[in-house]
Amino acid sequence: MKVHNFSAGPCILPQEVLKQAAASTIELDNIGLSLIEISHRSKEFVAVMDKAIALVKELLEVPEGYSVLFLQGGASLEFLMVPYNLMKEGGKAAYLETGTWAKNAIKEAKLLGETTVVASSADKNFNYIPKGYTIPSDVDYFHCTSNNTIFGTQMKSFPETDGMLVCDMSSDIFSKKVDVSKFDLIYAGAQKNMGPAGTTLVIVKDEILGKTGRTIPTMLDYQTHIKKESMFNTPPVFPIYVSMLTLEWLKKNGGVEWIQGINEQKAALMYGEIDRNPLFKGTVEVEDRSNMNACFLLTDESLEEEFNQMWAAAGISGIKGHRSVGGYRASMYNALPLESVQALVDVMQELEKKHA
Amino acid sequence: MKVHNFSAGPCILPQEVLKQAAASTIELDNIGLSLIEISHRSKEFVAVMDKAIALVKELLEVPEGYSVLFLQGGASLEFLMVPYNLMKEGGKAAYLETGTWAKNAIKEAKLLGETTVVASSADKNFNYIPKGYTIPSDVDYFHCTSNNTIFGTQMKSFPETDGMLVCDMSSDIFSKKVDVSKFDLIYAGAQKNMGPAGTTLVIVKDEILGKTGRTIPTMLDYQTHIKKESMFNTPPVFPIYVSMLTLEWLKKNGGVEWIQGINEQKAALMYGEIDRNPLFKGTVEVEDRSNMNACFLLTDESLEEEFNQMWAAAGISGIKGHRSVGGYRASMYNALPLESVQALVDVMQELEKKHA
Q1: Is B300 in the active site?
Q2: Which of chain B's residues have a Cβ under 8 Å away from the Cβ of A196?
Q3: Yes or no, beta carbons of A76 and B239 under 8 Å apart
Q4: Same domain, yes or no: B327 and B306
Q5: Contacts of B260 (CB under 8 A, 6+ apart)
Q6: Domain endpoint, select from B191, B226, B253
Q7: Tell me: the pLDDT tens digits for A258-307?
Q8: How far is A201 from chain B (nearest CA, A)?
């Protein structure tokens, strides 16, 4: 039976990517050696890294003057690297608090300097994106989280700011068009739309770096990694390779514009059913709903066990909600086909019929 | 043709590990999903992490009171984490300078406090391990590098010290018996004897942590990762899984004692030929030679092109020396079979016969 993989991350990847990754784990490009047992400085792996970087630049239309890096440590290490590299000695930063990851980012920034939370949706368990806030004009940068995996909210627009604009796009990068030129720094853990766990994408405007007056530890300094083209130390070979394959798959099929269309279809189908079916309700303000993670509850909790058995029987996997929200979360990342959303919607309608 | 893979790292892994890693990249344990598209909190991956940790403890006979972590960022990030976690505010550290990686470790420690280099082999391009040095009694810890991949030296014993003993074992961990109880902290990038690039093993005595008086950034604090059992953030799933498989392979075949015997045979064969064959000479003091990386030169450089063609024709890969040393480096990590060393020795003897 086919599994419909709604995992919130690490998450579904295209079948052809999995097959190619497996083949290259046995032997890469007929070189007689596995991808994972060659030097990262071999011409074969350098070509992988170069291609991965070129695909990021092409798919996101990254302008001149930006560097693309593949690092380690996930968004969680970026929470520290961002203030280290961008907050001036004695400087300030402003953050938008939209969920768990934003809170973690704020915590690290506070270690390095004055950090203002310009707005928060903590008052309603992060079920909306704050709006109408003011970003102080004297901050070095403003930081936001474009998509909140746990709570199912997504920023549909980004504010204007006098300082630098920094965004954690871990869970919606490559899912829709984004104007990179409006951002000074974008980062994203790979394990949603880009690849497997184990590498972090950073897109950074070169001219903003080296201006804080701080001494930055070597591995936390973006300039270290820019100078060495993400090979200052041994890079995470397999995660970068699989990211490259996933981006190739995206490009071959039509790129970000193509997947955005499909993601909008999936979200429309999913939220359409949540709103139509009297047995379910969404947890998030409608205008802030994420196209990646749809959070919803049963209106009658006594149906929980029955519903759980039904979706499990239909081959649906990974839709249990995060413990901070409860209920259900259908993560609909790039590689999830529309038919998987349809399979879930079918089960929701079956439940409705049974209790009509 | 079989490739004899002498790569210095990432390096050769057992064939059966590569096959199982490939199979699980398609589907893990008949669950209908790939290893790399399931949640790191799924019971399947939690079992992988638990097993990897248990295998480290068993194979190295890790005593009670130590934690085993799988992190990211390689030894290069450990260079920063070690002083952050172990050097007291206003404290001191002592380092042994035996090569490039030791120098990089010293650089990061100096950012955090008074760092003494107790001895260095820089005077002879790191071709020996300094001995007879004194470790100041007032340092928080002493740091050394057990094996120097680039220069081909290896510590055959470790000094006594009043403070904590910390060792970077990136390139010889699991290659020979080591008494973990003598160390307070051991770390190692996976990509030599343990697995593919992308995860870092840390073995740390719990009682030494939390005593510096420093505020440690969340991701750099070992206690963060101990509390969350290496799942504070999304771990590098594939590198940890393949490390688990490699450790299983090691255990099944007889463990560290078994591989130590084979590694000694390989080293004896290799260095025997280097010493016997008048066309070659070793670069390292005999008593400090590494069983992992044998560095050697042609005595007559005009034979270089001929020798290079001969070993390439014999299916030998990855023996070019590091640019800091020149010549050749045969890396003989755990998964390299004795027959590969024999293949290289055969080529060396063939060259000798041609020029007899």
Answers
A1: no
A2: 36-37, 237-238
A3: no
A4: yes
A5: B175, B176, B177
A6: B253
A7: 999 999 999 999 999 999 999 999 999 999 999 999 999 999 999 999 99
A8: 14
